[in-house]
C-alpha cells in the first residue's frame, strides 16, 4: 500500500468540482486519508513548486495557485502514485486520455485542475509539507 499527495487546484475549487474529482479518485481505488481546504500564501506556492523556479511559467503558476483556495489531500492505495497520475491524465488537457480528470475538467496546461506527486520521495516530501503526523489517519 502506498500514499501520494494531491492538490485540487484553484480552477477546480472555483468551479465547485471538488466532489466530482474526489469521486474519480475513489472510483480508481484510491482512498482519501487526509483532506483540508486551504488558501496558499505566495511563499508557500513558490516553495512547493520550487523545482520549477527557473521555468518561464513559474510566476504565472504561483499566482494561479494562490488565486483561490485549494484542497490538499493524501490518497492511499495499491500503486497510489502511478494510479493517481493515470487518473489525472497528461499535464496538458489537449494530450490527456478520455475519462481522465484533466481531459474532463482542465481548462489549459496551466489551469489543469489537479496536482499529484510524481515519485515516492516527492510524495513523502509533499505530504510532510502540508500535513502533520496527527492529521494522518491510517
Ligand atoms: P503537477 O502534478 O502539478 O506537478 O503536474 P505535472 O507533474 O503533470 O506537470 P509539471 O510538474 O511539469 O508542471 C507543474 C505544473 O506547472 C503543471 O501542472 C501546470 O499547472 C504548470 N505548467 C506546466 N507547464 C506549463 C506551461 O507551459 N504554462 C503554464 N502556465 N503552466 C504550466
Ligand atoms: Mg509535477
Automatic annotation (TrEMBL):
Q: Which PROSITE patterns match?
A: NDPK, NDPK_LIKE
Swiss-Prot/TrEMBL keywords:
ATP-binding, Cytoplasm, Kinase, Magnesium, Metal-binding, Nucleotide metabolism, Nucleotide-binding, Phosphoprotein, Transferase
Alphabetically, the GO molecular function entries are: ATP binding; metal ion binding; nucleoside diphosphate kinase activity
- Pfam families referenced in this protein's UniProt entry, alphabetically: NDK
List the GO biological process terms: CTP biosynthetic process; GTP biosynthetic process; UTP biosynthetic process
Q: Which InterPro entries does the UniProt entry name for this protein?
A: NDK-like_dom, NDK-like_dom_sf, Nucleoside_diP_kinase, Nucleoside_diP_kinase_AS
Q: Where does ATP bind?
A: 9, 57, 85, 91, 102, 112
Q: Top EC class per UniProt?
A: transferase
- EC assignment: the record states 2.7.4.6
Cellular component terms, GO, for this chain's entry? cytoplasm
Question: Catalytic residues?
Answer: 115
- According to the entry, every stretch annotated as the Nucleoside diphosphate kinase-like domain falls at 1-138
Which residue windows are coiled coil? none
Swiss-Prot/TrEMBL cofactor(s): Mg(2+)
Q: Which reaction does it catalyse?
A: a ribonucleoside 5'-diphosphate + ATP = a ribonucleoside 5'-triphosphate + ADP; a 2'-deoxyribonucleoside 5'-diphosphate + ATP = a 2'-deoxyribonucleoside 5'-triphosphate + ADP
* Major location (coarse): cytoplasm
- Record's subcellular location: Cytoplasm
State the oligomer form and interacting partners: Homotetramer.
Role played: Major role in the synthesis of nucleoside triphosphates other than ATP. The ATP gamma phosphate is transferred to the NDP beta phosphate via a ping-pong mechanism, using a phosphorylated active-site intermediate.
- Tell me its family: Belongs to the NDK family.
Which protein, by its recorded name, is this? Nucleoside diphosphate kinase
The organism of origin for this protein: Celeribacter ethanolicus
Q: Could you tell me the gene encoding this protein? A: ndk
